[in-house]
C-alpha cells in the first residue's frame, strides 16, 4: 500500500513544481499539499474504504483547483494549464470513476461527477459518465432526460439526443415526461435548422448539394413523436401539455392545428378538453378601436368571457359531470376575483357566477368547497334569504361533511336564524362522531352567546357523555372555564371535583384548574397539592414537566421546600424511559438556577 501511495504522490511532483515555479503557490504550501494528499491517499488504499473518504479526497482536489483559479486571476497568469490543471482534473475524474464503480447505486455521486465535468470543461467526459450511469440506472427517466439535454445543449448534437430519447422509450414506453422532452427536443432541433438556413440565405452562401428538408423544417419529426406518444398515452391532459409546448415555437401553426383537431375529435369525453377549448376564447383578438377606453376594454373582455361561457354551456350539455361543472365554476370564480373599476362588468360576472353555481347545485354536481364561495358572494351582496337557503341546501347535499355543517351553521349564526339549536343536534347525528369536535366547539360558542346558563350547561353535559375521547376532554376543559367565568371560583371548584374522576382526562384540564387556583388572592397550597397529585395519578409515568412544576410550586412563596426531596424521589420512581433522563437534566438546571 505504501508503494502505491508513494507512486501516486510522485506523479504529482511535476505539477507541484510548476505551481511553485510560476509563483502560484509557495514552497511551504506545496509541502502542505503533499502532506494532506498523502494522508488522503492512504485512506483510499485501505482494505475497507468509506465513501466519505473518496468524497473528502475529491473535495480537497476541487478546493485546490478553485485556489489555483483565484491565484491565476490575482497575478494575471493564464499559461501552462495543460501542465497544472489538467493532471488535477484527470485525477479527480479517476477518483470519481473508482467511487461510482464501488457505489453504483448512489445516484447523487454520479450527478456530482456530472456537475464537476460541466464546471471544469471536460464535456467529452460527461457523455462517458452518463453512458456508464444509464447502464446502471436505466429505470430512472429523469437521468435519460438529463443525458439527452446535455447532448443537445452542451454538445450541440441533436442526433445523439434523439438516440438517447429513443433508448429511454424502450425502458419507459409510457412515460409522459420522456415524451414531452423528446417532443420539445425535436422542435428545438427544427428551430436551430431554421435559424441556420436563414443565416445562410442572408449570407448568400452556395450550399452545393446540401438541402434543408421542408418536412423537417415544418416540424414533421415532432409530429411523428406526437403520433407515437398519443398512440400509447391517451389522455387529454397529456395532449394539452404537448400543445402548450408546441405553442412556444412560432413556426408550429400547422402542428398546433393538427393537435387541436385530434383533441376535439378524440378527447371530448374529458372535461379538461372542454376547459382548454373554452379558455382559448379569451386569447382571441379584440377590436382595436374599442380598446382605447376603459369601458371599451371591459366590453371586449365581457364578449370574450361570453364566448368562453358558450363553450362551457355546450360542454355541460354533452358532458354533465362533476369535473366539468367544477371547471365551469372555477373559471367563473377566477374571472369574478379579477379586479375591475367598471361596475357593469363586476355585476355581469357576479350574475354569471351565481347562475352557474345554482345550476351545478340543482344537478347535484357542485363540489363541497364551492358552497363557501357561494355563501360569501350572497352575504357580500346582502342576500340574507338566499344565503340561508344555500346554507340549508349545502347541509342536505353533504350531510356527512363536518366542514359544510360548520360553514352553514356559522352562516346561520351570523344571520341570527332561530333554527340553529335544532340544526346542531341534526348535524351531530349525521357526521362521524370522531370528526365532530369542531361542531361541539361551535355549539358551545353559540350557546354561551345566545342561550341561558341552564341550556349551556346541558350542552356541556351532553358533550361530556361523548364516546370520542377528544370531544369529552375538550368539553371538560371548556366546562371548567365556563364555570369559572359564570359562577366564580366556588362553582369552578365544584365542577372540577365532579369531573376529576370521569375519564378520559387531559393534562390541560388539571393545569387550567391550577392556574385558576393561583389567580385567587390567597391561593391554598393544599388545594394545589391535590390538583398536582390527581394529575400525577394520570400522567405521572410519562410527563416529566408536571413533576418539575410541582417541585417549583413547593419552592414558591406558598410551598414547603422540604417536600421537594420526596417529590424528586417519587418522580424518579414513577417516570419511565427517556422521561427519566429529561427530568434529571431539567432538575439539575433547576438546582443550579438555570431554569
TrEMBL record:
The keyword Transmembrane does not apply. Its main location: nucleus. It is found in: Nucleus, Nucleolus. GO terms for biological process: maturation of SSU-rRNA from tricistronic rRNA transcript (SSU-rRNA, 5.8S rRNA, LSU-rRNA). Keywords: Nucleus, Repeat, rRNA processing. Pfam families: U3_assoc_6, UTP6_C. One of its GO terms (cellular component) is Pwp2p-containing subcomplex of 90S preribosome. Residues 306-575 form the U3 small nucleolar RNA-associated protein 6 homolog C-terminal domain. Transmembrane segments: none annotated. Residues 9-91 form the U3 small nucleolar RNA-associated protein 6 N-terminal domain. The keyword Cell inner membrane does not apply. GO terms for molecular function: snoRNA binding. Gene3D superfamilies: Tetratricopeptide repeat domain. Belongs to the UTP6 family. This is UTP6 small subunit processome component. It comes from Sander lucioperca.
Amino acid at each position: 500500500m505504501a508503494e502505491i501511495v508513494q507512486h501516486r504522490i510522485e506523479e504529482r511532483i511535476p505539477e507541484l513544481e510548476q505551481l511553485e515555479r510560476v509563483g502560484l503557490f509557495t514552497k511551504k504550501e506545496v509541502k502542505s499539499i503533499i502532506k494532506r494528499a498523502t494522508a488522503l491517499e492512504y485512506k483510499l488504499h485501505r482494505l475497507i474504504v468509506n465513501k466519505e473518504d473518496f468524497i473528502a479526497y475529491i473535495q480537497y482536489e476541487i478546493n485546490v483547483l478553485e485556489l489555483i483559479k483565484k491565484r491565476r486571476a490575482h497575478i494575471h497568469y493564464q499559461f501552462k494549464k495543460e501542465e497544472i490543471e489538467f493532471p488535477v482534473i484527470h485525477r479527480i475524474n479517476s477518483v470519481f470513476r473508482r467511487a461510482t464503480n464501488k457505489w453504483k447505486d448512489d445516484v447523487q455521486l454520479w450527478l456530482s461527477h456530472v456537475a464537476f465535468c460541466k464546471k471544469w470543461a471536460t464535456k467529452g467526459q460527461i457523455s462517458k459518465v452518463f453512458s456508464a450511469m444509464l447502464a446502471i440506472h436505466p429505470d430512472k427517466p429523469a437521468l435519460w432526460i438529463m443525458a439527452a439535454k446535455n447532448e443537445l445543449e452542451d454538445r450541440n448534437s441533436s442526433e445523439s439526443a434523439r438516440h438517447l430519447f429513443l433508448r429511454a422509450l424502450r425502458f419507459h414506453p409510457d412515460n409522459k415526461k420522456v415524451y414531452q422532452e423528446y417532443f420539445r427536443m425535436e422542435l428545438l432541433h427544427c428551430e436551430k435548422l431554421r435559424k441556420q438556413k436563414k443565416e445562410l440565405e442572408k449570407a448568400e452562401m452556395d450550399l452545393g448539394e446540401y438541402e434543408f428538408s421542408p418536412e423537417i423544417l415544418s416540424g414533421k419529426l415532432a409530429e411523428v413523436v406526437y403520433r407515437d406518444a398519443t398512440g400509447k398515452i391517451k389522455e387529454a391532459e397529456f395532449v394539452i401539455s404537448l400543445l402548450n409546448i408546441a405553442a412556444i415555437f412560432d413556426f408550429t401553426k400547422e402542428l398546433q392545428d393538427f393537435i387541436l383537431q385530434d383533441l376535439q375529435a378524440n378527447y371530448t369525453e374529458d372535461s379538461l378538453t372542454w376547459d382548454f377549448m373554452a379558455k382559448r376564447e379569451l386569447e382571441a383578438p379584440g377590436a382595436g378601436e374599442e380598446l382605447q377606453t376603459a369601458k371599451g376594454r371591459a366590453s371586449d373582455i365581457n364578449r370574450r368571457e361570453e364566448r368562453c361561457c358558450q363553450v362551457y354551456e355546450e360542454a355541460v350539455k354533452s358532458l354533465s359531470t362533476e369535473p366539468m361543472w367544477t371547471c365551469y365554476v372555477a373559471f367563473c370564480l377566477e374571472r369574478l376575483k379579477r379586479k375591475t373599476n367598471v361596475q357593469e362588468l363586476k355585476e355581469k360576472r357576479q350574475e354569471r357566477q351565481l347562475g352557474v353555481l345554482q345550476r351545478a347545485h340543482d344537478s347535484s354536481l357542485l363540489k363541497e368547497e364551492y358552497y363557501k364561495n357561494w355563501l360569501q358572494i350572497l352575504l357580500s351582496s346582502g342576500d340574507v334569504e338566499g344565503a340561508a337557503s344555500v346554507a340549508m341546501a349545502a347541509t342536505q347535499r353533504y350531510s356527512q361533511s363536518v366542514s359544510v355543517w360548520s360553514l352553514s351553521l356559522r352562516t346561520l349564526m351570523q344571520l341570527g336564524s332561530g333554527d340553529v339549536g335544532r340544526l346542531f343536534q341534526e348535524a351531530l347525528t349525521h357526521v362521524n362522531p370522531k370528526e365532530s369536535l369542531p361542531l361541539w366547539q361551535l355549539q358551545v360558542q353559540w350557546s354561551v352567546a345566545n342561550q341561558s346558563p341552564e341550556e349551556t350547561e346541558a350542552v356541556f353535559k351532553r358533550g361530556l357523555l361523548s364516546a370520542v375521547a377528544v370531544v369529552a376532554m375538550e368539553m371538560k376543559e371548556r366546562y371548567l372555564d365556563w364555570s369559572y367565568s359564570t359562577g366564580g371560583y366556588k362553582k369552578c371548584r365544584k365542577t372540577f371535583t365532579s369531573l376529576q374522576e370521569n375519564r378520559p382526562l387531559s393534562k390541560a384540564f388539571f393545569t387550567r384548574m391550577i392556574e385558576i387556583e393561583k389567580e385567587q388572592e390567597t391561593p391554598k397550597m393544599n388545594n394545589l397539592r391535590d390538583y398536582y397529585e390527581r394529575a400525577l395519578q394520570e400522567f405521572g409515568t410519562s410527563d416529566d414537566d408536571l413533576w418539575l412544576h410541582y417541585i417549583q410550586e413547593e419552592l414558591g412563596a406558598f410551598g414547603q421546600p422540604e417536600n421537594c426531596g420526596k417529590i424528586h424521589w417519587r418522580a424518579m420512581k414513577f417516570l419511565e424511559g427517556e422521561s427519566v433522563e429529561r427530568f434529571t437534566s431539567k432538575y439539575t438546571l433547576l438546582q443550579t438556577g438555570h431554569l
